[in-house]
Amino acid sequence: MSDDLTDQFVRVRGAGEHNLRNVDVDIPRDAMVAFTGVSGSGKSSLAFGTLYAEAQRRYFESVAPYARRLLQQVGAPHVREITGLPPAVALQQRRGAPSSRSTVGTLTTLSNLLRMLYSRAGTYPPGARRLDAEAFSPNTVAGACTRCHGLGEVHDVTEDLLVPDPSLSIREGAIAAWPGAWQGANLRSIVNGLGIDIDRPWRELSRKDREWLLYTDEQPSVLIAPEPGRIDHGYNGKFWSARKHVMHVLADSRSQRMRERALRFVRSVPCPECHGSRIRPEALAVTFAGRSIAEVNAMPLAEVAALLRPVADLPDAGPATPGAESGESTEAAVRICADLVARIDVLLDLGLGYLSLGRHSTTLSPGEAQRLRIATQLRSGLFGVVYVLDEPSAGLHPADAEPLLVVLDRLKASGNSLFVVEHDMDVVRRADWVVDIGPGAGAGGGRVLYSGPVAGLEDVEESATGRYLFGRAEPDERSPRSPRGWLHLKGVSRHNLRDVSVDVPLQVLTAVTGVSGSGKSTLVTQVLAEVVGGHLGQTPPDHDGASPELDLRDASGLESFDRLVLVDQRPIGRTPRSNLATYTGMFDAVRRLYASTEEARARGYTASRFSFNVPEGRCETCQGEGFVAVELLFLPGTYGPCPTCHGARYNAETLEVTYRAKNIAEVLAMPVDDAATFLADVPAASRSLRTLRDVGLGYLRLGQPATELSGGEAQRIKLATELQRARRGHALYLLDEPTAGLHPADIALLVRQLHGLVDAGNTVVVVEHDLDTIGTADWVIDLGPGGGDAGGRVVAAGPPTEIAKAPGSATAPYLARRLE
Ligand code: ADP
Ligand code: ADP
Ligand code: ZN
Ligand code: ZN
């Protein structure tokens, strides 16, 4: 392969990954290139599946030639030739499963620097030894708090759990956590022997006695006298406090049932030793600028920058003196602070100043996580690299997207190329070059419709992108509906919402808007979901497990809803065994269809035989997975197609059964669009298929594993599954950014469905950034004005035309421009 790096283009020849149809395309380097097209058209297959995958493959080949054979097994991208391809870095959106210990500080590597600062330049208590940087990390043996092992919380018992009914006496079983039967009677005898009244209601015992009974580590032995009818001989009984008993069961019991029972009495509480900071007291005693490292970790980044900036700007710093108690005005302090402040400034530029270093990565939105990664890359000083980005603007308010674009421009200016899969037409307009793929999705796409400077796309008739980019698309006209009543929430507090009152109109489409961190998700996916779900007796969705109790003064209007439906972006399943067909339930109909064929009946195959989860029907080599793990030490979790079934997942006998000349594996391989024709006579399946097409998912394959779906696709599958129930009603639908990751043409489809739900009597509330969608809403609740502490208030509420004029709203100017 000839590689001429003086050529300013990356030249792709014969790309055929997934649906790409033998694509030839030339893409400029040192430019910002937007890859556009409706979802499923093949943008990611070209940008990630071909360009990035090939760059990655070449990199591994160069560092580990012996890996070649293994890499071949995994499969190189389907492309004849690529020339001029620089090394690539991918910044993908997919919500991975970040480890629960990763935080904003570890993701950005700022934590390392901060620990170095405390180690070298902190102020130590008199006589204390200087600590290694490691000692400030909860993730090292040297630093982790010994009580909670660096987790920041411990399981502990609480009085309200141990004693659910304080009106009972000990004899009546007040201490629910104590064992029952003989052991329980024994403990009661011991308590009696200790002189505590076991017939008084629990709440009337002295505080000292109650605490001792529940929490003491003491285990006095008491001589128990013989009791007629219970014990014949006296003996020495050993006391166990309720906590000691519960902890003993949790630590030592082999009985799953006992352990489960014991778990009912414990709750995670902040670690009493480190107060949740996860590090040891010696490290917490060290300060910088008057703060411990735990305090700095808990501060918003904007405050951290303000705290350290004076040191970074210190004019004449001295050298460090070994053994000195403080290194705060030394050269080391100035250097490290300057580095920290410069890095934090990038995050502030990106509108993330409200995050703290200690914030768990599992609680970040994908948009926040991607901006953190971009900021980290920006400081890494690489040049001559292609950054392949997945919709950097997704999930961002237009006011947050602007600074991000400035940062991307800086990446480009320092000599890199940016390949960006993008749907936001405002971002596409700023690109130097656009590669538009289409015209449709799946088999209806996969061609390059245009590759060149943005202006030239105007003349490409068949491009959906061109229609939206140059304003040729027909806007969806509808007149705003009026609310049919209200849900009033008063005095709501959670995260940055503090004593806020919100009124949500009924039987209309409401968009909740505001910059990143203003409180939209907290309000919609947590507060509304918990309040309405709680009223309906539905179990509240388990968020990150990290959210504090909801505080709410008053709510009215809850009785207007008979159902709550939360349509979020969480995966529809975590294993490749769940897929589109299984999730929507249509696979049951397909399996029944195969079982009803003559061939299946002759062989005695039932519907369960056609499941790839059942031993009779599935391929034994891969146990019905369709792929097998490939041993690649440096690429954990790499898979290759199963050598026996080649991905079909079934054994040969099962595949001999056909319906209309297709076996069941071939049906799973069909896109929804084709299956709609193929299964037209199967009512249960065709209803699902129709709703999937209605939300723009006609390009997905029926067997597409849950793990391959983007968050936006998962969300639309959930919505389609809801739509297929299609009943009139008074449900509350809550959606978090349903349009993220969608082409404007797909957004139009989706929004039509949401309006359909409202027409059927339901209430829909969406967290939304897309201005076209906000413009078609009946009502807007704008939160802000800023993120974090600068947000959390209702800035304006009303129909879109009024929000566009609202003073102090970050959304207003953008909406005004759009509604012109
Ligand atoms: P876009 O990025 O434009 O949304 P993709 O490149 O993700 O589109 O998908 C293009 C087509 O390739 C779709 O029909 C999709 O279903 C299919 N596809 C995507 N990933 C895979 C895969 N791992 N295996 C087979 N087909 C795939
Ligand atoms: P939005 O959806 O508008 O981007 P969020 O509701 O996600 O805003 O966040 C509002 C505020 O609450 C932000 O300051 C954010 O940092 C904080 N926050 C969100 N989730 C958590 C959490 N799990 N723990 C602590 N703070 C959180
Ligand atoms: Zn601790
Ligand atoms: Zn197999």
TrEMBL record:
It holds the Pfam family UvrA_DNA-bind. GO terms for biological process: nucleotide-excision repair. It is found in: Cytoplasm. The keyword Transport does not apply. GO terms for molecular function: ATP binding; ATP hydrolysis activity; DNA binding; nuclease activity; zinc ion binding. Residues 487-810 form the ABC transporter domain. Keywords: ATP-binding, Cytoplasm, DNA damage, DNA excision, DNA repair, DNA-binding, Excision nuclease, Metal-binding, Nucleotide-binding, Repeat, Zinc, Zinc-finger. It comes from the Bacteria. Its main location: cytoplasm. Gene3D superfamilies: ABC transporter ATPase domain-like, ABC transporter ATPase like domain, P-loop containing nucleotide triphosphate hydrolases. One of its GO terms (cellular component) is excinuclease repair complex. Belongs to the ABC transporter superfamily. UvrA family. This is UvrABC system protein A. It comes from Georgenia soli. The lineage of its organism: Bacteria, Bacillati, Actinomycetota, Actinomycetes, Micrococcales.
